[in-house]
Amino acid sequence: MNRRNMVVLTGGILFGFGLSYSGMTKQEIVLSFLQLEDLGLIFVLGGAALVAALAINVLAKIQKTPVLGGEFKPRHRILSWSTIIGAVIFGVGWGISGQCPGSAVASLGTGNLPILVGIAAMFIGAYLRGLLDS
Amino acid sequence: MGGIIVGLGVGLIYLVTGLHATQSSLLTTTLSWFSKRKHFQKEKNVKERSWRLTLAIGLVIGALIHTLTLSPTGFWSTSVQLWRLALGGLLVGFGTRLSSGCTSGHGISGLASLSRTSLIAVIVFMGVAIVTANIVQLLGVLP
Fold first, then answer.
1. Contact assignment for B93 to A126 by CB distance below 8 Å
2. Residues of chain A positioned with their CB less than 8 A from the CB of B59
3. What span, in angstroms and rounded, lies between the C-alpha atoms of B1 and B7?
4. A26: nearest CA in chain B?
5. Predicted confidence (pLDDT) per residue in A91-118, tens digit
6. In sequence order, what DSSP letters do the residues of A26-88 get, joined into one string?
7. Looking at residue A134, what is its pLDDT?
8. Is B124 in contact with A51 (Cβ distance < 8 A)?
9. Cα distance between residue A10 and residue A34, in whole Å
């Protein structure tokens, strides 16, 4: 494995550990947030975004370039109807099932085998999106 | 606390490699191994597919380590019904790819990049998900 993928794997392990630690790998906990019974998720998302913001807006500016070379590019997307309509469709799916791509993949590590059904369905959904893009 | 650890993972990957550790792109880049369609064979998808799969493997290992060490419940399975996982998953896969981001792409990396597009996307998907989850609950669908 090259150095870049080693770092990605290490960061991914932290990501997955944090998701499991905060209970976000449990669809029931995510659903209870969406039903406004448990506000934990907002602190998990907010805490993660805050630490990432520090890396992107402060530390990266001091460092100038990534350790392994290349350049820093903050994540920006052009706003379009696809962004909005996609977010609506994602929101309906998230509200029905309590799963999003990262939490579903990490959930496999907690022994949650039924989530394989959700992950397979996500791949089918992403494939259908590809069929529409011609 | 969990969120801080997630943020440390995202920050580490960004500062060392310059990559944004976002999740829903995994779906598209992985499909580039299986589909010859132009949508999946874009240069970006083929180039990113190995590190994105590596990231996903990291997520599974990280959650496994937590489950084996600090988790109060140990191994666990959801009791959310399979039809909800299937229907919800289908919409999540389609919607996140149409929107170019999910809870991590728009929610963590996008907001952290101070992206206006991502802020709007987060408000929309979170609002719609809250309304949907409450309707599902009102309809008496349990669990």
1. yes
2. 12-13, 15-16, 19, 102, 105-106, 109
3. 10
4. B78
5. 999 999 999 999 999 999 999 999 999 9
6. -HHHHHHHHTTS-THHHHHHHHHHHHHHHIIIIIHHHH-S-TTSS----------HHHHHHHH
7. 66
8. no
9. 30
Residue in A with minimal Cα distance to B141: A96
Ramachandran bin of A75, using left for φ above 0, alpha for ψ from -120 to 50, beta for the remaining angles: beta
pTM flag (> 0.80): yes
Could you tell me how many CB contacts below 8 A there are between chain A and chain B? 501
Task: Fill in the amino acid letter for B98.
Answer: L
Question: Which ranges of chain A have pLDDT less than 50?
Answer: none
d(CA B141, CA B139): 6
ω before A101 within 30° of 0 (cis)? no
* Shortest distance, CA A11 to any CA of chain B (angstroms): 4
- State the smallest CA–CA distance between residue A104 and chain B in angstroms: 9
Average pLDDT estimate for B1-26? 97
> Looking at the complex, does the CB of residue B28 fall below 8 Å from at least one CB of chain A?
yes
pLDDT over 90 percentage in chain B: 96
Confidence of residue B143 (pLDDT cuts 50, 70, 90): confident
Residue type, A84: I
- Residue A52: φ, ψ to 5°: -65, -35
The 10 Å Cβ neighbour count of residue B86 is 17
* B68 inside 8 A of chain A by CB: no
Contact A15 B101 (CB under 8 A): no
User: What per-residue string of b and e applies to A54-90 under the rule 16 or more CB within 10 Å gives b?
Assistant: ebbeeebeeeeebeeeeebebbebeeeebbbebbbbb
